[in-house]
Amino acid sequence: MVGLGSYSEGELGPALKETKHCHLAGIVSGSEDKRKRWRKEYDIPESNIYCYEGFDSIKDNSAIDIIYVVLPNSMHKEYVIRASQAGKHVICEKPLACTVEECDEMIAACRRAGVMLSVGYRLHFDPFNLQMMRLAREKAYGNVKRISASHGLRSAQGWRLDKELAGGGPLMDVGIYCVNAGRYITDLEPIAVHAREGEKKDKKKFATIEESLTWTMEYPNGVTAECSCSYSQYGNHLRIEADNGWFEIAPSFSYSGLKGNTSDGKMDIEPINQQAAQMDDFALAIIDKRSTPVPGEMGRQDMKIIEAIYESMKSGRRVEIHET
Ligand code: NDP
């Protein structure tokens, strides 16, 4: 695991105590304190503990099979490429990178090295979101007509507020969940987007990034997704209107506490540890030599949509997305 920040500490590390097909074999951190603390807590041998400067020597460490990049967004590209050059399979946190061009370089590097690249899209393993995918795919309530999704939080700080490190604002961080949900609900790529930036109430805090954003995604079958994201207003829902009913989850994008409802009543679903399921699935994909349901290419597609949303936000016009 590379970068022992709040997601590694709060979610991924604890999840690796529950995984069945992988375990925390090593860590990379710039903090001596954290290296010491994690070494003790996870019983990691000294030979598997790295600082960023020594990162490339992981290539000689056969105890490590997968490198999980959990760094600020602008560092993803460099560390994914270096991980691939070390001959290790890679999981990279979302967003895969800050531009489509960077995603292409990362995907190409992993291909060249013959290693698998996956994105930390944990919701593809979450039973509530899987149920939403199933209900849409099986047309349980008829054809999907309209999607509405929002994700916002008020706790963003540090590198998340700096475009250089984050690549953008709440769209890159939390809005990406709505972009990705549009795909797993429709099984389609949007053909056009139209976005509008929300009012910037705190001009100092949000000097380099958007504070909030609303946007529409249009799909080739006529379905539309109305989405919003924010760093100043809470939001967390995914709702689908279909010909004969509706289904929704709220909260929809959290690690736990998800709740679902349909026009027929409550969803009765047992929650699981999303991150443990996600990491176990990637380990099994490597062992079984099968593809991952959340490959680097999916991260790249999301970035393509995000770039179109930003283009629309700036121009104020509807932006068409073409296949490339
Ligand atoms: P944090 O800021 O909490 O942690 C980032 C860590 O990266 C730091 O603690 C530090 O680790 C390391 N780092 C190295 N260089 C820098 C730098 N210049 N500035 C800041 N940190 C640096 O971020 P998060 O853990 O919240 O997010 C990390 C990644 O994970 C992001 O890409 C984010 O989008 C993603 N994420 C995904 C989630 C999901 O649900 N899938 C949820 C939350 C985050 P060290 O001290 O060990 O070197």
What does this structure look like?
The chain is α/β, with parallel strands linked by helices and 324 residues long. The protein has helices at residues 6-15, 32-42, 76-85, 100-113, 127-137, 163-166, 170-186, 274-287, 296-315; strands at residues 27-28, 49-50, 66-69, 89-92, 117-119, 144-152, 192-197, 212-218, 224-230, 235-242, 245-249, 260-262, 265-266, 319-320. The chain has a nine-stranded mixed sheet. The chain has a three-stranded parallel sheet with strand order 3-4-5, with helices on both faces. Strands 1-2 form a two-stranded parallel sheet. Strand 3, helix 3 (76-85) and strand 4 form a beta-alpha-beta unit. Helix 3 (76-85) runs parallel beside helix 4 (100-113) and helix 7 packs across helix 9. The chain is globular, with a radius of gyration of 20 Å. The model has no long low-confidence stretch (mean pLDDT 98). NADPH dihydro-nicotinamide-adenine-dinucleotide phosphate (NDP) binds next to helix 1.
